[in-house]
Design brief:
CATH topology of the largest domain: NADH Oxidase
Number of domains: 2
Strand order of the largest sheet: 1-2-4-3
CATH architecture of the largest domain: 3-Layer(aba) Sandwich
Bound molecules: flavin mononucleotide
Number of helices: 15
Structural class: alpha+beta
Distance between the termini: 109 Å
Largest sheet: 4 strands, antiparallel
CATH class of the largest domain: Alpha Beta
Helix content: 40-55%
Shape: globular
Number of strands: 8
CATH superfamily of the largest domain: NADH Oxidase
Length: about 450
Amino acid sequence: MTQERETPEIRSEETGTEADTRRVFLRRAGGVVLLAAGGLAWRAYDTGVFDAGRGPAYEPWQSWRGAGPSEGPLALVRAGVLAASVHNTQPWLFRVGANALELLADPFRHLGPMDPFRREQHISLGCALENMVLAAGAQGLRPELEFLPGKLSQPLAEAPGVPAPEVVARLRVTPSRRDISGLYAVISQRHTNRGPYIADRGVPRETLWAFNDLAREDDSLRLVLLENGARRAVFDRLMVEATEAIVADQDMIAASNAWFRLTPREVEKHRDGPTIDSFGLPPLSLAAVKMLPKPEPEKTHRQWVAATRDVQLATAPLVGIIAVRDPYERATALRAGLFWQRLHLWATAQGLAMQPMNQLVQAIDRDRQLKRASAFDGGVAEILGGDGWRAMLAFRAGYPTVAAVPSPRRGIEGLVLEEAPASSLREADLIAEQGDLSPGSAADPAVARDDLRRR
Ligand SMILES: Cc1cc2nc3c(=O)[nH]c(=O)nc-3n(C[C@H](O)[C@H](O)[C@H](O)COP(=O)(O)O)c2cc1C
């Protein structure tokens, strides 16, 4: 009975409500889809899925040529800030005068236990110097570099009192013929590429010879290039082990993580640090990473080790080490930076991708800071041939599978110190307007420019 009574009821209910239920379901599902789409769109917007490399934080890459070939010394600063720097810390400040510029280390912009002797900070400053030298040539200025001597020590920030910016190099400029180098032309195209490279497309022999020629320009450096073989295997193993050592060191990994900028808001606020866009992910993975919730730190650390081993090393046809005799000499670190920037610009002009992989050096310095024997130091000495050369910067190179993107930059406004040696920022602008430093340095800048056009 019950069944009989119930069955028709149920049937009629079903019949009556089937369409309704479907409508309700579709309405609700539609709502859910809309909500989800809305949520995703919001998250996509919030995480900047669609606007990689856009906004004020990327503007210095567009405006770096400033007022053009007669801008004067500020053009050097604009080019300088586009250089590579460890973790995109941009540890530079400038003093700008009529005939000289000073480059200063910003004591608050270093990686602490990741770079305890500020070696990488100084390499980064050297990178800026290379861009400045190239920009000087393009401005019709002959640059003369002077490095401040001395040894690298523990960070000033750890010393008592408020640390002050420290002059590390001086660049004297005298008017000369304009010299626009091919490397100058690619300053804004050079970007660190962390994506997979084409594993079976080796770097041509002539390019390797050219790398070595560039290295020979500075006899304080030695360039060691490795493709295959036993030393390459040791390099790869040590690099992975160094990455593992870093993620196991709470202080190091915390210092590193503090510089990552994972949302557009953070990017716009700080205009520095590594961003998700700069991870070198293929487009779909990049969008997915941006949309997914932030993973647990342990997971990202495991992913870093895996990416180092299975992507960055596994697909790199070439790795290299820039070696020096005394890695704790300030001028040597600066020179290594000049060389790295030059090498990377040169590679960029050839369509090659490059990435510093400096975990090895970071692990060596951490061991030194904690006064413990370093397996990494010994291992690298073995790769370098054991005749007193020490690692300064390790890297990989190859042909890219994913285009590298610009990383954020701070504009030059806050970076040029008021108490400039000869003139303040405003005065430097004035000098440029007056043509004091325009090419040819004739009393009348217009004459100087005409002169140039005739050359
Ligand atoms: C001294 C030094 C060490 C670096 N070490 C690494 C590294 O270990 N891994 C990496 O992916 N990038 C490394 N970089 C690259 C910087 O992260 C990169 O220059 C910075 O994020 C700015 O990006 P850009 O080079 O594309 O302008 C290093 C750069 C310098 C100058």
